Amino acid sequence: MLAELVAVGDELLYGDIINGNAAWLGRQLADVGIRVGVSVVVGDDVDRIEQALRAAAGRADAVIVTGGLGPTQDDLTREGIAAAAGVALRRDPFLESMLRRRFGELRRQVPEMNFRQADLPEGAQPVPNEIGTAPGIRIEIGRAAVYALPGVPHEMYPMFTTSVLPDLLRRAGQPAVVVHRVLRTAGIWESAVADALAGEVDRLRGVGNPTIAFLASGGQTRVRITARAADRAAAEQLIAPVEAAARLALGPAVYGSDDDTLAAVVGAELAARSATLAVAESLTGGQLAAAITETPGASTYFRGGVVSYATEAKEKVVGVPADVLATAGAVSPQTAAALAANVREMFGATWGLSTTGVAGPAEQEGKPVGTVHIGVAGPDGTATRSLRLPGNRPIIQAYSVVQALDALRRTLSGLPGAPVPK
Question: pLDDT tens-digit profile of 346-402?
Fold first, then answer.
């Protein structure tokens, strides 16, 4: 089944509100094997809503509309749906009585404007809303089933799950189970992941089930394997050989699966060894420590950290030798090594981890934006990893956190790609 999403609201176009509903709906639909082909945002304008719905209904099997079902003059989704379907709006007596009852429970009169929420396009059925006053709408436009839901997430979520999703699955004739297995990678770019799995992707293209998708964000790439079957055991059986082939092809780049996080995996490795960690950060500005402490129980292995942002702080607080800073610079492998070794000693930790570099927007010490050096200090000595990362300031900082944690992960487990002590 092919679905399209239409979000209605000027506030989405102006950036006052982020369209989180589309992201949530996309995940819910993907989880049951319904493909989203197009997701658009239109303003509070009847003609534009009508055009968007006509186009979506001409392409897709199902269209899910969010927003524009409130009582005010700029809530125009009902009118847009009626125009797209070529029908008139009618006042539904049952919905009108429901409004009177709900407001009566609050000991309030129904404002005249609120009765707009009892209007339905002719031929449409209401979608129950147990939380708010705006019912949803279900109507056929051409060959597509169109569902309109409120834009308020805490109303939309249960309406979709309880009423819309079962109807979609009935129409789609979907298998009983859709199972995903997500392999998480670090220290390897998306293109390299795709290249490593090109043969498996080509093989599955002719089969159609399971499928492989690549999802890159925050300096990591997820490999999502999806299988559809009559039951979970059968879906898992379809996934197993694909997962095995992917793990073999990607090797040490795979750090976990499904809901694993890189920081949690590193933390588990430290805890298993009764080891501790301290960090010294420059360009990441505390983001590395924040990532580590997001994991419950991090206090068992994380001793603490220092944000030595200024060059003077690197010397005065963490003890980077003045001659290293003068000759190699604050952004250098030598400084990264000194930061890692000294913060390890400061906190009495088993391991020290450091970041220093140029996040931008301007170069530093004649070194270009994206230059990053990571230090890893442990019982066997100190090693560094030097990188040139792409992107703007927030991206470079986020990627640096991932690269630092991955460097420590590989070091702890003796994996290829770990920095080599000198």
Answer: 999 999 999 999 999 999 999 999 999 999 999 999 999 999 999 999 999 999 999
How many Å apart are CA 277 and CA 303, to the nearest integer?
A: 6
pLDDT at 121 > cutoff 80: yes
Domains of the chain: 2-172 (3.40.980.10), 177-257 (3.30.70.2860), 262-413 (3.90.950.20)
pTM, whole model, 2 decimals?
0.77
In the prediction, which pLDDT does 174 show?
67
Q: What is the DSSP string of 184-228?
A: EE-SS-HHHHHHHTHHHHHHHHTT-SSEEEEEEETTEEEEEEEEE
Evaluated on CA atoms 261, 262, 267, 270, the torsion sign reads positive
Specify the pairing of strand 381-388 against strand 371-378. Answer: antiparallel
Helix 198-205 to helix 232-250 angle (10° resolution) is 150
| Contact criterion met (CB below 8 Å) for 291 and 405 | yes
